[in-house]
Amino acid sequence: MRLIATEEGFAPVEYIDEYLKLTERIDTAPSRYLAIYYRQAQVVRQFTDLDLRLPEMDEYGVDVHLLGIAAPGVQAFDAALGTDLAQIANETLVRAIARHPTRFAGLAAIAPQDPAAAAREVTRGIRELGLNGVILNSHTHGEYLDDPKFWPILEAAVACDAPIYIHPTFPSDAMIAPYQDYGMMGALWGFGADASVHVVRMIMGGVFDAFPTLKIVLGHLGEGLAFWLDRLDNRYANIVRRGGLGPLKMKQLGRLPSEYFRTNFYMTTSGMNTAPPLKFCLDMFGPDRIMFAIDYPYEQTSDAVPFIRATPLDDATRAKITHENAQALFRIPPVAV
Length: 337
Known about the structure:
By secondary structure, this protein is α/β, with parallel strands linked by helices. Helix content is 49%, strand content 10%. The mean pLDDT is 96. The strands form two sheets. The chain has a six-stranded parallel sheet. A three-stranded parallel sheet has the order 1-2-3.
């Protein structure tokens, strides 16, 4: 059984160095946490030394890591530095893939702080560098892709037929306060909360009416949205029937919110290693939009691989989740080069 893991973290040394410099100038809860995290030698090695993970991949039979820059990514910086670091990250990826073309694939980092430059980097990453998609660490200084100023990025992604992986990050300054206690601001809760807000803004803002072939990938089995789709439809339909309700007035969409999720979104199993949620998503969406992921190094290969091998699935469904869907969506060669 071929295993392609589709949400696997990496970071160039230059990014970590610049982020640590940034933490000396800004004082936020995420920066204080990451200042400690990115000073741990083993953490830095896991992100920057891509050869380090190969023995673990071999031990558990993971054939390919699809690599994407770790949160908060180049979106943490000003436009000029973010754009430079995106280019460095993408060129680092290309070199790693060239060393191990059957083991690594990559997602292009972009800096939406400069939408025009980010759109150019989408095109360069896909058409010139040969990367397999685009990664965005959710919001950019509290702004989301529903804002039309970012739509040149979406235009470039559609033109290149490049899926955009919306990876979580810490909630924005405007929403983080209730998440700062009890370890809630990170992967425990805040990451999924921010990523799901991002996606609902895109759907309700009409992004997929404007870009009907745009492809978005979410980790963690859809960041909780799979469970909430009927509620979105219900509230949207009821309010629209009444012609809008004061401050809750909504945009008129071409379809129900859930319909965009079913046609424009894919999800991965990153960090979700129990059978009932996977079964729920399979019942809701079928097997063609779900892909295996580990979320290395945040999550453990030793948890993710035994789960996907042992969970009750028919052979055709297991093949789609473990490799066939990723091969098709990200254009990863189905056999060794």
